[in-house]
Design brief:
By secondary structure, this protein is an all-alpha fold. The chain has 17 helices and 2 strands. Bound molecules: protoporphyrin IX containing FE.
């Protein structure tokens, strides 16, 4: 057993028992961050902060929400919004947070793609990030069911119907998922469980894993320069170089993160107080009615690109393509065959690949919101879906041909 001297401070007492000083060094003061990074590298902490806010606001909502098909709608739209003191504020915060978290996730993902931050030892950072993306999608979808409005009900119906295609029908998969023939009480109860318990638990685990995968390879830098960050810090400390190429995560880099978060939260609370409706579908302010199908069913904006990928195809093929479109991003570190870690602007055909992918996803998003009845929009949607897959097929070929920088 270690020798325990009388401690002169709480810090020392804790250090003797759980090595807080070592932890502080590993996670903060000697966790080296390159100087050459821009505000986009603050998005990870912005995401962590938004997730924290979603948890806190969710806990307040949970105190009054009733997961029952006869009471869920009123408990949200009447009880929480009008009767409970500041209930509206927590709901606005939760709704805006749920929408913005996806905007930031997409910015964070495309930043990673642009700078090649998924390569050379950073593969697990990317994979754990993608796991977070899938978990957040499940969290958002299950949460969307809870107010039991028209769009909750019908989006639940349409998405679970995907599992009734082809031979899946014979296995009764869709009834198994719903716990009934149509979305009803069993459906609401299990989505409630997923939203408030299982998914948040898994997200917390995945965030810890994501942070863990970052510690050894460290974050990338704007030029994709490969150097030993700890060695760079030592060189500076020893006076061998005039300017250090790295800074400690805390307090130096963290202060930049906090500044970016400040700007972000101005936008966040502007939306909470003045433009809350942007995060809400007007159709969902009508209670769920299984006998009246809305004229046009669509998901929240952040699912529109993948919804548009499945929409032009038959149920079976649509489900398969939808699944591939989600999973394909996981394979990015392995499909990109080029050894170059550099911003896309400096990389051969990859720079066009990146921008085409981004614009294609935006077009899919816009088309996903429009009714499929217009043949022009339906064709644009179909072509964009085909381009999406063509891009992924082309990726290993164009990156294999890329010259070494
Ligand atoms: C709640 C979700 C997430 C949280 C809290 C989170 C947090 C972070 C943090 C704090 C960093 C380091 C600083 C930075 O680059 O921003 C980071 C880096 C990274 N994250 Fe995430 N992240 C999340 C989701 C994702 C997703 C969905 C992806 C995409 C697949 C992803 C991929 C990456 C990559 C590739 C890096 C390394 C960036 C680099 O080396 O330059 N993350 N993440």
């Amino acid at each position: 057993m270690a020798k325990f001297e009388k401690a002169s401070s709480i810090g020392e007492w804790l250090d003797q028992r759980i090595a807080v000083e070592t932890l502080k060094k590993v996670m903060q003061t000697e966790y080296w961050i390159p100087k050459d990074i821009n505000f986009l590298w603050a998005m990870g902490m912005v995401l962590a902060a938004t997730f924290g806010i979603l948890i806190v606001s969710g806990i307040f909502l949970l105190m009054y929400y009733q997961p029952h098909v006869d009471h869920a709608f009123d408990s949200v739209n009447y009880l929480i919004m009008t009767e409970v003191g500041y209930g509206w504020l927590w709901r606005h915060i939760h709704g805006v947070g749920a929408s913005l978290v996806f905007l930031i996730i997409y910015i964070h993902m495309f930043t990673g793609i642009y700078y090649g931050s998924y390569k050379r030892g950073r593969e697990l950072i990317w994979i754990s990030g993608m796991l977070l993306f899938v978990l957040f999608s499940a969290e958002a979808f299950s949460g969307y069911m809870l107010p039991w409005g028209q769009m909750s009900y019908w989006a639940g119906m349409v998405i679970t119907n995907l599992f009734s295609g082809g031979s899946l029908e014979a296995y009764g998969l869709v009834e198994w998922i719903r716990g009934d023939y149509v979305p009803a009480q069993a459906f609401l109860t299990r989505f409630f469980m997923l939203h408030v318990f299982l998914m948040p638990l898994m997200i917390i685990g995945a965030i810890v894993f994501h942070f863990g995968t970052l510690r050894i390879p460290h974050v990338n830098n704007q030029e994709g320069e490969d150097f030993d960050y700890a060695e760079a810090a030592e060189l500076y400390k020893a006076g061998k170089v005039k300017e250090s190429k790295v800074i400690p995560f805390s307090p130096v880099f963290l202060s930049k993160d906090v500044f970016v978060m400040g700007v972000y939260f101005v936008l966040f609370f502007y939306l909470v107080f003045y433009n809350f409706s942007f995060a809400m579908d007007p159709v969902n302010f009508d209670p769920a009615n299984g006998l009246s199908t809305p004229a046009h069913i669509y998901p929240e904006w952040y699912f529109l690109w993948s919804y548009e990928i499945l929409r032009p195809f038959s149920k079976d093929i649509g489900l398969i393509l939808f699944a591939i479109s989600q999973v394909i991003f996981f394979t990015l570190p392995f499909l990109d065959r080029s050894p170059n870690v550099a911003p896309a602007s400096r990389r051969g055909l990859f720079k066009y690949w990146f921008w085409i992918l981004l614009v294609d996803c935006l077009i899919l998003t816009f088309m996903g919101k429009l009714p499929p009845t217009d043949p022009t929009f339906a064709s644009i949607g179909l072509v964009s879906a085909v381009i999406f897959f063509a891009l992924w097929i082309a990726l290993p070929i164009i990156t294999k041909l890329e010259k070494k920088l």
